Amino acid sequence: MSTPSRTGPPPPGAPETASGPPPLARAGRALLSARMPTVAVAVLLVATVAASAALQPGFFSPYGLSSSFATFLPLATIAAAQTVIVLGGGIDLSIGAIVTLSSAVSVVLMQGDDARLPLALAAGLATGAACGLLNGLVVAGLRLQPIVATFATGSMFGGAALLVLPKPGGTASPILTETYRMVVLAYIPVPAVLLLLLWLAWRVLRRHRFGQYLYAVGGDAGAAYSSAVPVSAVRVLSYTLGGLIAALAGVALLADSGAGDPTLGTELTLGSIAALVIGGTRLRGGSGGVGGAIIGAIVLSLIQGLVFFAGVPTNAREFVYGCVIIAAIALAGLLTARAAQRPAFQGANR
Question: Region entry Disordered: which residue ranges (predicted)?
Fold first, then answer.
């Protein structure tokens, strides 16, 4: 004789049934575990934007937004270039020198003439791609450590930039600088539109076979090779694409400054690495994305502005800026590590 099943609500104090916690609690738990890198970047972005708006009354004005995004775009673009390389398991310490060399080539050919703009841009982009291709061949072909190889090629590219443009000078095309500072739809700066296009291009690339190969090679090159992924070709192409995107950063710097400088992008290399780390990309490759790197670059640029507008003494600005960057990277790293330690059963339900 079977026992009749018990119906009705469980008595008070009874343990939770197999149905699990309420939906709101499950949603909050998922947000704090699975999406922690995104949450960390969002918190940093909101905090820096709020602080910037508090210290700069005209921050959200058309002129303020135009100036801000004109500053964001070069670092965000070079961070995107570095991210493509890091996702494939590499790193490029020459990327700032590539920016400098490509912009030097462009401004020398441009000579302030709008008619020479297409040729100058094509030459600058080709220079960046050629530098990236050389890096890829050295790293993937000669199997040298990326840090050592790109440190050496960075010296080569920096020296070449000084040969092309020995001292600051040259004039950018007027149409280039004017377009860069334009505002469309009465409020949206052109650099903001370019940032959006950069992210959209990445989304397209991410869904392409090369994007899938890039994550596979960065995650586990041995397993990727066993799955018939052309590991060396993917790495060479990642460095080439990174060099091309870095050349775009050189164009943005040239459009923003209006003149050439043989040391224009040398300080951006470490900034690009810090931006992608803040954005949730792992330096060992295989995880992350350009979207996070772009937001990380914006956060870094805002932090630099905050240090200036907060009235920090000139001789202490670099120290304070470095401390704040360390704190931001540590926060993003800790929260990303927490996301990586989530229980296995949570990942199985996604």
Answer: 1-22
